């Protein structure tokens, strides 16, 4: 069984080495994927000078092209984001805006370059909103050409108006942990199928 490649884009608002719950859930997904012969790495987007925009390269030192190269080299993309004010973090929204450029980047068969790649989402927060954030992020990823597996998201939210982060909440093997393992297993399965049999060419391009 050939090894697949996964990339986590952690959309924490905090730069390294600050603790990050979204980085934690991203790393947990990588650990679960390793059980299915998937290698991976994590990049915290806030550590990079990513410019606002909707092109593949905004110039003037924009560091998105280097992250984009990692996306294109991966079979599975994981977006890990905290919830802020019931929304995906601003860093996550910026990443989605940059990925919008992929609609114009086609292969020789007329397909966006991210066709055949699988996307999964990990969400953490101290408030309700995980389903809303998941819906926004997965819809955006699907719009630009990523494929979403069954049960393609995992999340944890703390008590309403609470102050405990996922970093400090302790293991949740029967809830978030099980969901993470399921998302990883389904993502690896789907990515392997798509690698072996890509989508058909887009007619008219």
From TrEMBL:
It comes from Kribbella jiaozuonensis. GO terms for molecular function: oxidoreductase activity. This is NAD(P)H-dependent oxidoreductase. InterPro entries: Flavoprotein-like_sf, FMN_Rdtase-like_dom. It comes from the Bacteria. It holds the Pfam family FMN_red. Residues 5-151 form the NADPH-dependent FMN reductase-like domain.
